[in-house]
Amino acid sequence: MEIIIGFGIILTFLAMGECVSVLIGHFVPGSVLGMLMLFIALLLKWVKPNRIEKVAHFLTGNMAIFFIPASMGIMDQWGVIKLNWLGWIGVIVVTTICVMAATGYTVQGLSSWGKRKGGEK
Amino acid sequence: MMREMMMSVPVLMALTVGAYLLAVWIRTRSKIMLLNPLLISLPIIITTLWLCKIPAQHYIQCNSMISFMLGPCVVALGLTLYEQRMTIRQYLVPILSAVLVGSVVGILSVVALCKWFGLGSMMTLSLEPKSVTVPIAMEVSKGIGGNTAITAISVALCGLFGGIFGPLILKLLRIKNPIALGAAMGSGSHGIGTARALEIGALEGAVSGLCIALMGITTAVLLPIINMLIGI
Q1: For residues B131 and B157, is the Cβ–Cβ distance under 8 A?
Q2: What's the rounded mean pLDDT across residues B166-185?
Q3: What torsion do the CA atoms of B180, B186, B192, B197 make, to the nearest 10 degrees?
Q4: Is-contact B73 A68, C-beta < 8 A?
């Protein structure tokens, strides 16, 4: 019963997210909106965390299995990737470094700025 | 008859579950956290389908029930976010700004580099959401017209690269602040990055895990806007 309730709550939020997504012209995926709504509902204590814990932990703990089937679509894309696989890997490597540098420096910059501001007081 | 059996939904679904379990078993056995279950299960399934001459599209269709769970999986990340609400509250400003800057840099760097390397628009759209955890990246990719398979594998490779070289890169960049380290690992390489960040420290790991879900939200919202602005 616990699992059915948990799954039902998660499905409800997914459905609500999907409806809002339709309303805004699929600008943001329904599942992402559902995640946001669930987060807010948990903060406002509309949903008790222990109601969904079991199902949510099962889902997030075994995430990889849910995207294996769709990833097999890569078989039909070999042609596109083979054309420029070096470019593909290049983009992945360089952008990952870019993102790490950007986030890391932002936090570090903010904290040293905060310290300096604190020191001036 | 044998072929009919192999082509049936339960058998092909069992193949997915079996390949996943085998991949997880290999990872636990070898104790190498970097062995991504997705990247190990794919070759197993590809070989099996090839040996039995089953078209990939048929396999994907038969597994639509498993694929459907992607949606609930993303929603469930809302609980992960909730469980880390204390960390959010404590480091609200640095984490939020890091995630905002990170997702914008992530999207723009993909667009710029795809042009530089001469990758087509389909590849660009599939790669744009790659700085986000796989299920969210796939949903976003589907929304903007990318190929979800390319997105999923790119994100997995990205996690692999960041998981192996992330700590070294951050050392070279002289990023030492634990929150900065966690934010960079989580934003740059998601799940594997968080596993590595947890090895460095508990705070690094918590911040990293948090950034995964937050990057997902900001990227999902910002990506269509940026695409509209730069006209892709």
Answers
A1: no
A2: 88
A3: 30
A4: no
Q: What is the pLDDT of residues A89-113, one digit of tens each?
A: 999 999 999 999 999 999 888 877 7
Counting one residue from A and one from B, how many pairs have CB atoms under 8 Å apart?
313
Nearest to B158 among A11, A69, A92 (CB): A92
Nearest to B74 among A27, A32, A80 (CB): A32
| Contact state of A68 with B20 under an 8 Å Cβ cutoff | yes
Q: Could you give the ipTM of this predicted complex? A: 0.89
Q: Tell me the per-residue pLDDT of A42-89, one tens digit each, with 9 for 90 and over.
A: 999 999 999 999 999 999 888 889 989 989 988 888 888 888 888 899
Yes or no, beta carbons of A72 and B149 under 8 Å apart: yes
Question: DSSP letters along A77-90, please?
Answer: GHHHHHHTHHHHHH
Helices B148-172 & B178-200, crossing angle to 10 degrees?
Answer: 100
Query: Which residue has 């910059």 as its token pair?
Result: A109
